[in-house]
Design goal:
The protein has helices spanning 17-28, 37-41, 68-78, 104-113, 185-188, 276-285, and strands at 3-8, 32-35, 61-66, 85-89, 117-121, 124-130, 133-140, 143-148, 155-161, 164-171, 173-177, 201-206, 216-218, 224-228, 238-243, 247-252, 256-261, 266-270. Helix content is 18%, strand content 36%. A hairpin with a 2-residue loop joins strand 6 (124-130) and strand 7. Strands 7-6-17-14-9-10 form a six-stranded antiparallel β-sheet, with no helix packed on it.
């Protein structure tokens, strides 16, 4: 790899100290490295999103400095460019960002010498409908979450697979997760941990109001539809859908989310030779 672009979480690297050190190290080895112009001017100091049009052509790798949240945002921003991402964790716990601050230079050496692998990670495509009207659509690397809008109550969620009725959850909400997202919100809700090398959906109810509700694993070629049921006393229910905890779309009774596998994957650069289980054990022992 010879041409790099750096995306930084300015909250975690306020003065761009680590960012500029990484850029200087790459340049000292004859590589090209570009930083966000709005960051350098201070205008984009608190911006999480990256305009893919700002990324020069023929970039070999986007280096993401921050945590899993920063990497999730970067993945959604640059997915159409299909540029591999390397995450450097500046937070406390990261499953996606595998490099810590003590390993930055060795990781950069691996990038420059070709000692890495690129792992494709499945993404989700979600479309929100009201009748035949498309309200909004977006993609997610971790999960798509449908939950109540506000208040302490359960909502009715009617679930369909390929147009056939599957089940109904009365719960706080439902998580549709990728294998990458199985170590995120889905795990907190009692969902299974899945190797990111797999391709499948994990459907996990949030605080279901029954004793026999469990996660359901579905193959990636399926299309899953979640429809908002009526509220208490047949009132109109208020709900909301989130894409990777970012894009937020309000919903009401009768609205539905159609979820399928995205046509494009996120490309994650893997430096370490450790297996997923070794990485999982190391991360969980640090919790």
């Amino acid at each position: 790899m010879n041409r790099f672009y750096i995306i930084t979480n300015r909250i975690k690297d306020k003065d761009l100290f680590i960012t500029e050190q990484a850029a200087a190290y790459l340049r000292s080895h004859g590589k090209e490295c570009f930083l966000r112009e709005d960051f350098l001017s201070g205008e984009g100091k608190y911006s999480r999103s990256t305009d893919p049009a700002m990324i020069p052509e023929d970039i070999d790798c986007v280096i993401v400095l921050g945590g899993d949240g920063t990497l999730l945002q970067a993945a959604r921003d640059v997915v159409n460019r299909q540029i591999p991402l390397l995450g450097i964790n500046l937070g406390t716990l990261g499953y996606l960002a595998e490099i810590d601050t003590q390993s930055v230079y060795p990781a950069l050496d691996c990038l420059m010498s070709g000692k890495y692998e690129i792992e494709p990670r499945m993404m989700l495509q979600g479309r929100v409908y009201r009748g035949d009207e498309l309200l909004d659509e977006d993609i997610a690397l971790n999960d798509i979450v449908i939950s109540r809008e506000d208040g302490l109550r359960v909502i009715q969620l009617d679930n369909y697979v390929n147009g056939a009725y599957l089940n109904t959850y009365r719960a706080d909400g439902i998580i549709l997760s990728t294998p990458t997202g199985s170590t995120g919100y889905s795990l907190s809700a009692g969902g299974p941990i899945v190797s990111p090398a797999a391709s499948l959906f994990v459907m996990t109810p949030l605080a279901p109001h029954t004793l026999n509700s469990r996660s359901i694993i579905l193959p990636p070629e399926n299309e899953i539809t979640v429809k908002i049921g009526p509220g208490r006393d047949e009132k109109v229910e208020q709900a909301v859908v989130y894409f990777d905890g970012d894009t937020r779309v309000p919903m009401v009774t009768g609205d539905r989310v159609e979820i399928s596998r995205s046509q494009k994957d996120t490309l994650i650069v893997k430096i370490h030779n450790s297996s997923f289980l070794e990485t999982l054990s190391r991360k969980m022992s640090n919790v």
